[in-house]
Amino acid sequence: MIYSSELIKGTLKTIVLKLLEDNSRMYGYEITQRVKELTFDKIQITEGALYPTLHVLEEDGLVTTELEYNGKRARKYYSLSPEGKSKTKERVDELADFMNTMKFLLDIKTQTT
Amino acid sequence: MIYSSELIKGTLKTIVLKLLEDNSRMYGYEITQRVKELTFDKIQITEGALYPTLHVLEEDGLVTTELEYNGKRARKYYSLSPEGKSKTKERVDELADFMNTMKFLLDIKTQTT
DNA sequence: CAAAGATACATAAGAAACAGATGCATTGAA
DNA sequence: TTCAATGCATCTGTTTCTTATGTATCTTTG
């Protein structure tokens, strides 16, 4: 099962920020693969969605980049800036709050692992 | 606190369907007020978002409508069609699944009421 | 060794969904 | 009687994503 794209809208930026918080340095393709793995293929970030998002995060000063080469192949590594770190906490907290509201609104029981 | 609009994107249709499942008959303005109440003002559905959504649900055959008058004031009541009822279950289940995935991905602790 | 698939970046055109503004009309309260 | 609330609706952005395309390198497999 893959979630309808509607559902994923609006969470992409938060997901990317959270991954960077946990991993300190990641490149674009790595992010798509990591999300695919972690969600058992249920969330598949397309490149057309990811790269523009990363560029916006960079423009907004939330991430910094370093271009590195693995042989001739370029990789653009992204890291959270200090501003990005605090923004990440904000975003994740807001999403947590939102999810509690949605649980209440939709009377949903989530797993309590 | 009001959630960033990004976050709410994609959940509006599910929220409306769920409300109609619980209340059998509602009109547009009533829906906006109920959501506002239930979420303690954290989710405020604008009319520019709601009415197009309701019209799409009607076009898709998920809801039926009845126009009624309270004095001279028109109210357009929306009810779930049989198709709408099963679609609602699908949507709510998908959202519950999605929320569990996001909890895992973002390592979020939600309230276990 | 050639071809195909995976890795890695990126952009561009269009669709979808919502925000914000506006409009009209009725009703109730100050 | 005037303002806020109720109730419908549409329209013009804007944002965000989808789908397609483009370029290039590396790896695996027949």
Structure in a nutshell:
Chain A is an alpha+beta fold and 113 residues long. Helices cover 58% and strands 16% of the residues of chain A.
Show the helix and strand layout.
The structure is a homodimer of 113-residue chains.
Chain A: H1 5-8, H2 12-23, E1 26-27, H3 28-38, H4 47-59, E2 63-70, E3 73-80, H5 82-106
Antiparallel strand pairs in A: 1-3, 2-3
Helix pairs in contact in A: 2-5
Chain A binds a DNA duplex (30 and 30 nucleotides) through residues 5-6, 8-10, 12, 27-30, 33, 46-49, 51-53, 55, 70-76.
How is this structure best described in words?
The structure is a homodimer of 113-residue chains. With 113 residues, chain A is an alpha+beta fold. Chain A has a single domain, classed as Winged helix-like DNA-binding domain superfamily/Winged helix DNA-binding domain (Arc Repressor Mutant, subunit A), CATH 1.10.10.10. In chain A, 58% of the residues lie in helices and 16% in strands. Chain A is built from 5 helices and 3 strands. A 3-stranded antiparallel β-sheet of chain A has the order 1-3-2. In chain A, helix 2 packs across helix 5. The mean pLDDT of chain A is 91. At the A-B interface, helix 1, helix 2 and helix 5 of A face helix 1, helix 2 and helix 5 of B. Chain A binds a DNA duplex (30 and 30 nucleotides) through helix 1, helix 3, helix 4 and strand 3.
